[in-house]
């Protein structure tokens, strides 16, 4: 099935449509055919009095069976469907080994630069003044380039969350940009404009900014600072060894808590640094189906939970993020199985917090996902334009997820703070 075939089919059934109307029907026909595996002729049969309005109505009803009758019509987002094979993600497994490593002049003698030189002897090394643009024009080639730099601005900031969503008071420390995993929903695909992996060599300068800074704490007992916004917090830790500085730093500041957010099992540095009560190591968790099909190159749930048990034994506390929860046939059983596996495996008294959030994305990210992962199933759900301009499942479907997962998690982890992430404040209040 191709976009061109969908275009030709719609043109054949309704030859007199203008460009914009045809564009909407092509998208609907294509998305339904992809989701249902049905031929176009069954989705939009040629009928005698078929016109744009009747065709769109029947296609919307089939594409959005839960929301068609209740959602305002401007919440269905139907942009032109454009798929470019050149943008597809490369899902061939390979180790992280950049072809070119740029090191900024001011950090040439840093510990990180030395480690990188030793780790990638066959890479081409170049010195940069930090002003020249590096990296590939194609996001899928980002791992070819590594930039070791001195971060000058983006040390600490409040979590940008989503402009109108309920805020949990999170604070961010920006330890890197770019990731070697390929999660189909990752916002970096659309957000990252420098297609390379960036790692700052001046961690001490970051830490110097923390003392004296004021932090929000939201509904938690102490301010939370985390590092997993623009990269996975641990995926490069064997290279960066940031954990070796972060853990002792926060051990000496028990009034704060620091969170590593990861899907990796790269915990050697943490074990070496020794445990720490106010350092929380958090794993993103999901149903096995989503982990296996949409989080490419990441370790599976069992491996993540085994790593969590190890760091808990070393003295760290744990966090988990059910994010993004994806709705599909049978999601309840699959997510319940994940909770069951967590309950059977984890030391419950060590789990500090668990967040839950359903899949959401910007309009631009939707286009990126369908280009990079044309076979994805995560976009098959019913996503509507929402209160903050993002696309989300409708209110009733999100409520269903929260009504299912929150009581279950609170029952299994009665001493854990379970909360919603990036949600409509009205919805948050009801949970
Ligand atoms: S682990 Fe996080 S940062 Fe890495 S690809 Fe997945 S979502 Fe993106």
UniProtKB/TrEMBL annotation:
Gene3D superfamilies: 3.40.50.12110, 3.80.30.30. GO terms for molecular function: 4 iron, 4 sulfur cluster binding; DNA photolyase activity; S-adenosyl-L-methionine binding. One of its GO terms (cellular component) is endospore-forming forespore. This is DNA photolyase. It comes from Candidatus Avelusimicrobium gallicola. The lineage of its organism: Bacteria, Pseudomonadati, Elusimicrobiota, Elusimicrobia, Elusimicrobiales.
